[in-house]
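**Folding the chain**
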Amino acid sequence: MEWTDIRLTVAKADAENAEAVATLIAEGGIYIEDYSDIEQQVAEIAHVDLIEQELLDKPRDRVIIHMYLEPGASPVETLALIAARMEAANIAYTVETEGVVIAYTSVYGNTKAAVEKLADKLRANGCPKVIVHDLARCDMAQAVADAFRYSKLVLATTTYNADVFPFMKEFIHHLTERNFRNRTVALMENGSWAPLAAKVMRKMLEECKNLTFTETTVRILSALNETSAKQVDALANELSKEYLAQQDATANKNDLNALFNIGYGLYVVTTNDGTRDNGLIVNTVSQVTNTPNRIAVTINKQNYSFHTIQKTGVLNVNCLDVSAPFSLFQRFGFQSGRTVDKFAGMEVLRSDNGLAFLPRYINSFMSLKVESYVDMDTHGMFICTVTEARVMSDAETMTYTYYQKNVKPKPETEGKHGFVCKVCGWIYEGDELPDDIICPLCKHGAADFEPIG
């Protein structure tokens, strides 16, 4: 029998406390990988040119602790003990290795066939490790240990008396009893006409913390057909997305969706053209310097507010908090101030510069004065000084990601063929999206549409 190596990754700041926890648990000893001062160590023993680049590229802000378990020791129980001790010590850690574990049960072999198809696709996509366990025949303890060891878990089973197959039920109980958490989980279900397994498994896991379920759930009606086979392919691509992106041969090197991963807050910029108040939703506000304080606000030239700011040189930036409802985005984002009074029927409060600020749904606002302007072709960037700033509450700032996940209604795409606007949910029906399309609701262009389905 072999010794088991459990690897814990912790922040450098937590390394000393984590080492103490590991020493108490690991009967076979520990080994620590710490590269935070490698340059100093190199200088003491050799010239830096003699050290392999792989070592020099190691992260400096993290430490890896190897815990060795003697042959016969239970990694499952050890992992549960680690989770309890680390949580008690308030130490954030990861224990997994990159890879996918597929745990399944199969009655007539059809679920097994789907699992094998998924495993083959994952390997072809460059997944570094794919472990498959038939829960009715494998070592259950090893399957549970692998679920804790690797970063992603696929559960595939049949519906059994409106529940799940007993071996799968036992497996999930082992996970939940041992504080299973911080993983990506995918579900595959099989049933002759109305599979319920995915719903049951998700319910069983609901007490586990920080689980991320894949968007794709594979639904098999007895045996794989064209629809479920496509779902298997889609799940494989979702689980191996980062692996595909890491390889030159398979990476999409022009995926502008990367821009949506830049952290953006959402703001209402308020102005006045001399006759009435106006406002619009933007996500392009940033502090560019702090000595002196300078705020950059970028506005689309097609927006009426752009021309008002050019004319008056003043604006207010209202920082939305997470309580802001979708109706607020409709009021300030889906109609034009050229033709609509966006403040109609709304309570108006004013800052020292005379402009409106929102009476609710914000955690702060800033009054700005334009100091300089940068032409950005389709947009204009106003570089501003802060003339007034108030903090209204400690509420969390609304981000673009939060809006997409929690505020914007899900578009009703059932039975429709075409493209959906990722900003507001408006649907364009047709086989091809015009290059010059402008969403009639939010005024965003073709880059912010995605295919339905």
